[in-house]
Specification:
Layout: H1 3-36, H2 40-51, E1 54-57, H3 60-65, H4 67-72, E2 79-84, H5 90-102, E3 109-113, H6 116-134, E4 138-142, H7 144-150, H8 156-173, E5 178-182, E6 186-188, E7 208-213, E8 222-223, E9 231-241, H9 245-257, H10 265-276, E10 278-279, E11 284-285, E12 291-299, E13 302-310, E14 316-317, E15 331-333, H11 348-357, H12 360-363, E16 390-395, E17 400-401, E18 404-405, E19 411-416, H13 422-433, H14 452-455, E20 458-462, H15 468-476, E21 478-483, H16 486-498, H17 505-518, H18 537-549, E22 578-581, H19 587-596, H20 624-641
Parallel strand pairs: 1-4, 2-3, 2-5, 3-4, 7-13, 14-15, 19-21, 21-22
Antiparallel strand pairs: 5-9, 6-15, 7-9, 8-9, 10-12, 11-12, 12-13, 16-19, 16-20, 17-18
Helix pairs in contact: 5-6, 5-11, 8-9, 9-10, 17-18, 18-20
């Protein structure tokens, strides 16, 4: 063997050894990485879960196989909420979602939709309304693939069939979770699954807790007082399904029965219980009115019992009225009988009409405490609109009174809002400047300082708030602003210019302008007669609330415009020398001091003689919802005026039309 051959042989052996060593080193590095970095994708998913709000899937199978959903459900809650909707119920869904989100349950919300269009609408609602404001995490599932494969057409019956299938898949896939099924017209006023809520008020934990219904009569679980005409059934408008073997078996049996019951899941569930299972004993009624029933399951491989609790109507209300928001009900699943025999009352439009009737639409603008929220008026202060009459007046030097001539006093600034007692205020001013004489022109208002009787006593002009000269004089001179309790003032306006009764052409214009500004439609009612246009008290508050909700309060007639947008638009109350009510016991003496520099009258009679004209009498009391609307309308006004009101009283009290005021 030559030296060259030996050299080449050892060189090849060295190269092989080197390559093996490098390979071993690489495997060691991989092993170390594998031990110290189990799944970098999981960390990335976990981070996205903590920041995302809406998770989207195209199939139920995709949802159940996704590990991020498993992580999402590890949030300390043992239940999640499930609802289904299509395009026809999108508007009711937005109302339902608003109520649900405001409860801040912290539970994951599963929303199932049938197609792309419904998906896009639902996603917009979830992101815009609930999620950004209330941090509600949701899972949105587009079932277009499932509906295409399994259902010929998306309709109510197919929806019922699909939701039983979906619910069973969720229970199978997430074994540690219970699921709450809710219709989108079952409005959550309280959280039914909260500690002490209607799902958790009893020592036992039934397999299913469900709202009460009367359909289907032929498969009634029980009867009220053994009356065969008063069936008690399980209504799936609101239902808690616990993750138990009995519930799994029941849902499988319901799916099997669906085709024979026109794919009606509520009918199928009740009929499985009463036709296929054996009742154990008689149904019992608890103190809260709920009905507890037990059934023996002898189906398939499962042999056991299923416990069902049906909640009373007091907790999940079915027959609603305008008072529903003031009751103790947890959920309002309002059923309304059709107006006409042929009318279908389960359309989305019909549900929205009912939501509006029962006050749910207005409550959507409310905060957690049920207090209605309106735009703040401060942003409108600089807008261009009619300036209010704040008068700068000067007394003539030759004015004579019983006690002798009064020297020229200089300029004083007076501001009186409409319906704040202006007639009494200017009537008193006239008496002060005319030797105690009363206003002589009964056919013309005393508030009109341009009329002849005033010219001998004083000169006046409107204050130019933009003039530095006028502003300096205002700050340095006497000033007085007359205010009134905001609700009392609106009452006075309502009584004289809006309420049905006396026919006035001016009332037509006033009501027309108010309704036109709100965008509402006037419907003449036979109870209003055929006189001038008018509104009842609830309607008046509703229309006024709509104006405020649109941020148009600065455009209201001066009689309805909030007082902080009148006398205090350019000068806040603390910049005026005196801010008083007409009923202030010292009002007349304060007015004299402002106008003459000192009180003129002698004795303790310093009150204004306040008279409110009232050509007719009536009494009305606001409904609870309209009462909250009125609170919202006047809230900002009270915040500004409360320190200056004689008696603010209970600003949330009932608003009653009293002819004596």
């Amino acid at each position: 063997m030559t030296p060259d051959v030996v050299y080449n042989k050892y060189r090849r052996q060295s190269l092989i050894i080197l390559l093996c060593a490098f390979a071993a080193f690489a495997l060691t590095i991989v092993a170390v990485i594998d031990e110290t970095w189990d799944d970098p994708q999981t960390e990335e998913q976990t981070e996205s879960i903590s920041s995302a709000k809406v998770f989207e899937f195209e199939k139920v199978d995709d949802l159940t196989r996704d590990s991020s959903v498993q992580t999402l459900l590890q949030n300390g809650h043992t239940a999640a909420t499930v609802t289904f909707l299509d395009e026809t119920y999108f508007e009711p869904f937005t109302v339902w979602l608003d109520f649900y989100a405001k409860l801040r349950t912290g539970r994951v919300l599963f929303v199932f939709v049938p197609n792309d269009r419904s998906h896009d609408k639902a996603k917009l609602a979830l992101e815009k309304l609930a999620l950004e404001v209330y941090s509600q995490t949701s899972v949105l599932v587009n079932l277009k693939s499932d509906t295409a494969n399994h259902l010929d057409k998306w309709n109510a019956h197919n929806l019922w069939k699909l939701r039983m299938q979906v619910l069973r898949q969720l229970l199978d896939s997430f074994s540690h979770m219970n699921f709450i099924l809710s219709d989108v017209d079952a409005i959550w006023l309280k959280d039914p699954a909260a500690p002490g809520g209607i799902f958790n008020q009893h020592e036992t934990s039934p397999d299913i807790v469900v709202s009460r219904g009367t359909y289907p009569h032929e498969c009634a679980v029980s009867f009220e007082d053994n009356d065969q005409t008063a069936p008690i059934t399980a209504c799936l408008g609101l239902a808690l399904f616990r993750n138990t073997p009995s519930v799994h078996r029941l849902l499988a049996d319901v799916e099997t029965m669906l085709p024979s019951k026109h794919n009606d899941d509520q009918k199928s569930l009740n009929c499985v219980l009463t036709e296929q299972y054996t009742r154990i004993g008689e149904a019992s009624e608890a103190e809260d009115g709920s009905v507890l029933s037990q059934f023996q399951i002898l189906s398939g491989e499962i042999t056991g019992t299923l416990q069902l609790r049906i909640l009373p109507y007091s907790q999940v209300t079915r027959i609603c009225d305008e008072e529903i928001l003031s009751t103790d009900a947890t959920v309002a699943h309002c059923y309304v009988h059709p107006v006409e025999e042929h009318e279908h009352n389960k359309t989305g439009d019909k549900k929205m009409e009912n939501f509006e009737r029962f006050g749910f639409i207005d409550r959507m603008r409310s905060n957690q405490d049920g207090q209605l929220i309106l735009p703040h008026s401060e942003t409108f202060v600089t807008g261009e609109y009619e300036e209010h009459e704040a008068y700068a007046i000067s007394l003539r030097p030759k004015l004579k009174l019983e006690r002798g001539p009064i020297a020229y006093h200089g300029q004083s600034t007076l501001c009186v809002c409409p319906k704040c007692g202006s007639a009494s205020f200017y009537g008193e001013l006239y008496r002060m400047t005319h030797d105690g004489k009363s206003w002589p022109n009964e056919n013309n208002p005393v508030q009109n300082l341009g009329l002849r009787p005033w010219k001998k006593a004083l000169t006046w002009r409107r204050v130019d708030w933009q003039s530095r000269s006028d502003w300096r004089k205002f700050v340095d001179s006497e000033s007085i602003a007359l205010i009134r309790d905001p609700k009392e003032r609106l009452l006075s306006v309502y009584r004289d210019k809006v309420a049905c009764g006396a026919h006035k052409a001016s009332k037509d214009r006033f009501v027309n302008d108010l309704i036109g500004l709100s965008g509402a439609t006037y419907r003449r009612s036979p109870t209003r007669g055929f006189g001038s246009r008018c509104l009842n008290l609830d309607e008046f508050v509703q229309v006024l609330y709509e104006v405020h909700a649109q941020g148009k309060q600065q455009l209201l007639n001066r009689h309805l415009r909030p007082q902080h947008l009148l006398c205090f638009l350019h000068a806040s109350p603390d910049q005026w020398a005196h801010v008083i009510e007409a009923k202030d016991p010292n009002a007349a003496c304060i007015l004299e001091a402002v106008v003459f520099g000192e009180p003129i009258r002698e004795g303790d009679e310093c009150a204004l003689s306040v008279d409110h004209a009232n050509p007719f009498e009536l009494e009305e009391v606001l409904a609870p919802l309209e009462e909250r609307m009125l609170d919202a309308i006047t809230k900002e006004e009270y915040e500004v005026l409360s320190p200056y009101l004689v008696d603010t009283g209970d600003q949330s009290s009932s608003f009653i039309v009293d002819a004596s005021k």
